């Protein structure tokens, strides 16, 4: 049984703050500064360039990938860490399209994170082969899967509403129509019980700075199913994806398996922080995490709707249809969120009117939920948000 009281103590959370924004950036693990200091002083400082061999820096991309694999239901040896999520989306989508060369439609939904759609548009523009990005409402995705679709590219949890797609059902229908699947796990890795292997997913990508708590800008990961691992072509043929990078050959030969999806030099310092964060996950049962998440999000919805009738639920009410995030709509949602943050409850805002609250059971409990709702009720009921200083948009919302 997972001890969530113990995991809570493993994070360095500021006093007086209820942190409901782990769906955007996870908090600092207490062990991360020491881990990074050790890598900087004992490895980089004393070993210098020999650290690539003596400290095993080069192997960490795969080692961290294996640690993440357990959390997303992937087979060992089929996840690798490195680069950014945008790069991993590009790699996965490009490889998936090449598996269906006679089809031209990339199917996604209107709730997908815009960056994924931008990457698809950019790839289409570079290929110049008549591909089309087709987006439909999230609830219409299953019906839109037809024999003309090449790739289904879906973010499992909608970044705005928290709506959870049925990975198993959509993947089954996609495969029945010869469609290759690419799943973005940015809002599910470390938040829900992901089952990539059981759902027979083809590709998946995700970031590590949200629920996995790897730190701002921590590296992304990519999953390639075993059946594709030795044939998927890496469109970004980086030197670390080469079969023999230190042979310095003039032409590219892809590495066997998942390592062909490596591109650039591993961010060793960032990986040290991620490694420390993943230590916390070693004692976490993902099914227990999901049950706890459902309890917390359900309690929050019930309490907010009772205390703040001016807010409209944007997330699915049914627990099995949402991730570990709850969103409410309010016309002045940005100002309301700033007022809430000023009182120690940190969530975030997404245009045009979404107030987002993320629930990470590793460090959030029922007491946090009830206290956060009490403060939210005060902000909303007394219109504390209706001040000029809360209405000036910052660069990051």
UniProtKB/TrEMBL annotation:
Its EC number is 3.7.1.3. Its cofactor is pyridoxal 5'-phosphate. The modification N6-(pyridoxal phosphate)lysine is found at residue 210. The keyword Magnesium does not apply. It holds the Pfam family KYNU_C. It comes from the Bacteria. GO terms for biological process: anthranilate metabolic process; L-kynurenine catabolic process; L-tryptophan catabolic process to kynurenine; NAD+ biosynthetic process; quinolinate biosynthetic process. Belongs to the kynureninase family. Belongs to the DegT/DnrJ/EryC1 family. This is Kynureninase. It comes from Pukyongiella litopenaei.
